[in-house]
Every structure is written in C-alpha cells, then in structure tokens.
Amino acid sequence: MSQFDDRQKGQEAKFAFDAEKKFKAEARRNKLLGIWAAELLGLSGEAANAYAAEVVAADFAKPGDSDVFDKVSSDLKAKGVAVDDAALRSKMDQLAALANEQVASEG
Fold first, then answer.
1. Are 95 and 33 in contact (CB under 8 A)?
2. CA 104 from chain center: how many Å?
3. Cα distance between the two ends of the chain
4. Which of 2, 33, 43, 69 could, after both became Cys, cross-link 48 (CB 3.0–4.6 A)?
C-alpha cells in the first residue's frame, strides 16, 4: 500500500508544481502585456510599471483571459490606440509563449 501512497503523493506534488508554473507564466504574460500596452498608451517608467501591475491584477476579476483582454482593449480604445481584437489576442499568445519559456528557464 505504501507504493500506492508514494505514487499518489508524487502525482499530487506534480500537479501542484504544474499549477504553480502555469500561474507564474500567466502572471508573467500579463505583466509583459501590460508593459507592451503601456508603451502604446505613451506611458513609461513608473507609470508603465504601475499599469502593468493593474493588468496583472485584472486577471483576478474572473476566470480565463477575458478580463485581461477586456481591460487592455478598453484602455487602448479609450486612448484612441488602434489595435484590433485579433492583433491583441495574437500579442497575448505571443507573450504567453515567451512567458512560458522564461518561467521554464528559471526552473
């Protein structure tokens, strides 16, 4: 029975590790997206970092990516920055891949 318990504990540890890695990658993607959008909004320095933090925080509003997408999209539109929905989704996908690489390389 101890082999079964050991295997179950190993699977639980892997699940927890994978979930933490996914969370870190999503947060990193959101920060990178916030910095990218901040540049388009004409923000720099501390203002850009503050905006990126707002984008990261927006992800806790509801499950999925729609809350982050909605925030960035509405902020860009409010400032008259022309980025269509497909381009924004594409940028999110590109930054997700980059974030996954960065998190994986950090161990």
1. yes
2. 14
3. 32
4. 43
> How many CB atoms lie under 10 A from the CB of residue 103?
19
Cα gap 88→67, rounded to integer Å:
13
Contact between 26 and 18 under an 8 Å Cβ cutoff? The reply is no
Lowest mean pLDDT among 13-22, 23-32, 62-71, 79-88: 13-22
**What is the rounded distance in angstroms from the CA atom of residue 66 to the CA atom of residue 101?**
23
pTM of structure: 0.84
Average pLDDT of the segment spanning 21-44 = 95
Q: Is 103 strand, coil or helix?
A: helix
Q: Which residue has the tokens 């999503």?
A: 26
